[in-house]
Amino acid sequence: xxxDKASMEEAVNDVGIGLVxxxxxxxxxxxxxxxxxxxxxxxxxxxxxxxxxxxxxxxxMVRVYYKERG
Length: 70
Hints:
87% of the residues lie in helices and 0% in strands. The protein is mainly alpha-helical. It has a domain at 32-70. Helix 1 packs antiparallel against helix 2 (40-69). The chain is elongated.
């Protein structure tokens, strides 16, 4: 199997950006839900929703960046 170096670079950078973003987002959401005394199920739903939204926006921005780069 031949590895596409440009695709690998994009994937690694996208995952790295996600890793850097995930900790502060997770911490902030958990603190907020704890402060608001939200149930565990609701906290999980909120986290999944926020992480999904952030992931879609992040992936779109990374894809556009690499597409413009050529």
